[in-house]
Amino acid sequence: MLLDLLILLVTIWLTHFLIGEMRKPKNFPNGPIFYPIIGNLLTVAKLRKETGFLIRAVMKIAERYSNTKDVIGLKIGKDLVVFTMTTKALKEVYTCSDFDGRPFGPFYETRTWNKRRGIIFTDQDFFQAQHRFIVRQLKEFGFARKGMLEICENEAEFCVNDFRKLIENHGGTSATVNMPNILSMYILNTLWQFLAGIRYDVDNQEMRYLQGILSDLMKSIDMKGALFSHFPFLQYIAPEASGYKDYVRCHKNIHAFMRKEVERHKRNFNPSDEPRDLIEAYLKVLHVGDESGKAHKSFSELQLLGICLDMFIAGSETTNNASNFMMLYLTRNPHVQIRAREEIDRVIGRNRLPKLSDRPNLPYCEAIVHESLRSFMKMACGVPHRALKDTKLCGFDIPKDTMIISSFMPPSMDTKNFKNPHKFDPENFLDVNGNVVVPENFIPFALGKRRCIGEVLARTNLFLLCTTLLQNFYIEIPDGHDIPSEEPIDSMTPNVRDYEAMIVLRQ
Ligand code: HEM
């Protein structure tokens, strides 16, 4: 009798639970039915395997289920997730402050000592105070003063000199190299000099090791998180299989590196000295407060480590992968190199290296940079946002705490804006007179309060590396090699496949 009652109660509870798990919020964006516990995880995983890309998987689902082309509503584990599928929806997310939050969960907090720290995954007052500080530092150390620009120009020069040495070591005229990530150290150096005032040699083992960890980390996660973020219990029952253990290990290694750097700064710190990098400026705020005489409560040493971690991840992975696309397409398109080189020779010549101030006179080279960013972003998603309150998106109801992920494919592939969206073609950004035209809807660095803070640095690096390399080298497909594939790899941000190219010294 008692057992029967127990079975009945468990059955009622289970039925109630299962119905609750499958129920969709009222007027939620359309999408497949939610299965209990897993939601749409299996559908997304299966289509992702078939199509090779998260965003292609979501597009396939949208084709089948959506009653609008703007947004699609899914549930992954415990999380309601809305994907934007049009430029209109993307712009609405980035310009409406209701969507300025960042999601909660172990994926976002494990990386910063189980607290909400850093810049990328914090929000509201905490984020605003820290964001203000970093943006001011970028302006003060950065491009308002000459310092940062000089750092970028110097790194491009280091790159050319290292390539020359490499060619010399290969017999004097050319060297065949593995191309992906060939510029990563120079890109990282510009960022790291801003953060910590240090530059590393191209073969510095410690930094190479750190970059290796970072690239493994990026391959194992994506913009909607990792398995353990949607199913938090997996971090306890399947830490290995859910990716939790690797995630923690990678972050521990990166933390140890950042902590060493902060400790070094602390040993040499004198509050009355003018800060020379971001870490010193932050330590100064911790010691003597900001210009108002006291520091916002969000400032702490742990938060400084969180900022270093986030800037390192956000700044190196993105620009590095965008530069990988730039190098891939230059390798695949000798005619683009010829035209760029002709422009560089005409405007700058061969007796000095390109500078950022040459950019207005090098429209074709600038168009290559825009086109490389477009090629990189066409398969990319933004960092997840969170609805800070119950709100509306494209006419649908979005409950508080829903995760919103924006696809950058629509603004990057718009046939109204680009003559040739499916091809790598710098002409996509040039008018009939050869002047650069950037469509208003082309927004690789996003918009609004959560837009990228590293845009100027990223654009500067891409332009200087592109022009400096083309001025000094030809980039060719080695004899007997196939044309490298342009099919990207799905990762935290898209990346190129492995390939080799020959760098030939210009005489
Ligand atoms: C080609 C290079 C880059 C691209 C395409 C890019 C793109 C973006 C995009 C689209 C966002 C918005 C994220 C969102 O959806 O909320 C973003 C945010 C961010 N970016 Fe970049 N980025 C690049 C380089 C950099 C660099 C060099 C830095 C560091 C100096 C950086 C630091 C950040 C940070 C800290 C955020 C988070 C801002 C926030 O949470 O409000 N990025 N980036």
UniProtKB/TrEMBL annotation:
<dbReference type="InterPro" id="IPR036396">
    <property type="entry name" value="Cyt_P450_sf"/>
</dbReference>
<keyword id="KW-0492">Microsome</keyword>
<dbReference type="GO" id="GO:0006805">
    <property type="term" value="P:xenobiotic metabolic process"/>
</dbReference>
<dbReference type="InterPro" id="IPR050182">
    <property type="entry name" value="Cytochrome_P450_fam2"/>
</dbReference>
<feature type="binding site" description="axial binding residue">
    <location>
        <position position="452"/>
    </location>
    <ligand>
        <name>heme</name>
    </ligand>
</feature>
<comment type="function">
    <text>May be involved in the metabolism of insect hormones and in the breakdown of synthetic insecticides.</text>
</comment>
<protein>
    <recommendedName>
        <fullName>Cytochrome P450</fullName>
    </recommendedName>
</protein>
<dbReference type="GO" id="GO:0008395">
    <property type="term" value="F:steroid hydroxylase activity"/>
</dbReference>
<dbReference type="GO" id="GO:0005789">
    <property type="term" value="C:endoplasmic reticulum membrane"/>
</dbReference>
<dbReference type="InterPro" id="IPR001128">
    <property type="entry name" value="Cyt_P450"/>
</dbReference>
<keyword id="KW-0256">Endoplasmic reticulum</keyword>
<dbReference type="GO" id="GO:0005506">
    <property type="term" value="F:iron ion binding"/>
</dbReference>
<feature type="signal peptide">
    <location>
        <begin position="1"/>
        <end position="20"/>
    </location>
</feature>
<dbReference type="GO" id="GO:0020037">
    <property type="term" value="F:heme binding"/>
</dbReference>
<dbReference type="InterPro" id="IPR002401">
    <property type="entry name" value="Cyt_P450_E_grp-I"/>
</dbReference>
<keyword id="KW-0560">Oxidoreductase</keyword>
<keyword id="KW-0503">Monooxygenase</keyword>
<dbReference type="Pfam" id="PF00067">
    <property type="entry name" value="p450"/>
</dbReference>
<keyword id="KW-0472">Membrane</keyword>
<dbReference type="GO" id="GO:0006082">
    <property type="term" value="P:organic acid metabolic process"/>
</dbReference>
<keyword id="KW-0479">Metal-binding</keyword>
<dbReference type="GO" id="GO:0016712">
    <property type="term" value="F:oxidoreductase activity, acting on paired donors, with incorporation or reduction of molecular oxygen, reduced flavin or flavoprotein as one donor, and incorporation of one atom of oxygen"/>
</dbReference>
<comment type="similarity">
    <text>Belongs to the cytochrome P450 family.</text>
</comment>
<keyword id="KW-0732">Signal</keyword>
<keyword id="KW-0349">Heme</keyword>
<keyword id="KW-0408">Iron</keyword>
